Amino acid sequence: MTHHTNNVVPQYDFSDAVALTVDERFARSLDSARRLVAENGYQKISDFPCVPESGASDEELARLESNLGSSLPDEYRKFLSRCRYLKIDDGCEIGGLDHNGVYVTETPWISDDHNPGIKYLVFANYWRFADGDQLMFDLSDPIQPIIAYLHEHGPLYESYAPSFSLALWRLVHEIDEEA
Asked: 41 in the Ramachandran plot: left (φ > 0), alpha (ψ -120 to 50) or beta?
């Protein structure tokens, strides 16, 4: 298990979210994301839904896992079966699958180059501190926490959230709090 710091990414109070089920976190986060893209005008400039109403099929998810050479973490797989991807703004997105054959966001990928000796599943852009920063699962840790990769700060690998649903909650609510 790798220890990650919080020198740049501040600690986050998840107390509102941990009282909810994973499905409730997803529902509330997606509702908030839809409101945010309507308010910030991002949906108006997009030719695709920023928050798709449908998810990936079991066959599509199996194909993605086959392409990755790895199973998707349970909560992330469940999210993609509900919502193919999420795009709130430039640099604030959760990668996933295509929209009607067009890739509108990044495809998740496995990296062993970020931090030699550790495999990560890179699944999101998180440009809060610099463009090019990412969110990823630490696949070397049995609980697979979400790590923020901050390339212009060292690079640094900082704790972001203990699970995917809490990372989704934090990503959406951080933006909402800043708006």
From this structure: left
